[in-house]
Write a structure and sequence with these properties.
elongated, mainly alpha, 103 residues
């Protein structure tokens, strides 16, 4: 009987952008891209801040922002809706600045 060859399946792992944000410049460029490309996507921008916070370490970012770790996770989750003051605190804790430009 001939041997039937079976295809081996390729294993994939989910891409986690936080694992690739290593420097402050990369983090700022990532946030800037979100602000530029999707300026009306508040949830996406909050998620981008969350990805940067995970890259830096949520516990330290929460401490630097004066927030609990749990409230930071909640605010920057996909379902979160952080206040603007929270966004500013987190940006400051992350060491990034928000910029304005004429539309």
């Amino acid at each position: 009987m001939p041997k039937i060859e079976t295809k081996k399946s390729t294993k994939t792992t989910p891409y986690d952008v936080a694992e690739h944000l290593r420097t402050p410049e990369e983090m700022a460029a990532y946030l800037d891209a979100w602000l530029e490309e999707t300026p009306d996507d508040a949830a996406g921008i909050a998620k981008a801040l969350g990805n940067i916070a995970r890259a830096k370490g949520m516990t330290q970012v929460a401490k630097d922002a004066g927030l609990s770790r749990e409230s930071l996770y909640r605010a920057l989750s996909a379902d979160g809706n952080p206040s603007f003051s929270t966004v500013l605190k987190v940006a400051r804790a992350l060491g990034v600045k928000l910029h304005a430009a004429a539309a």
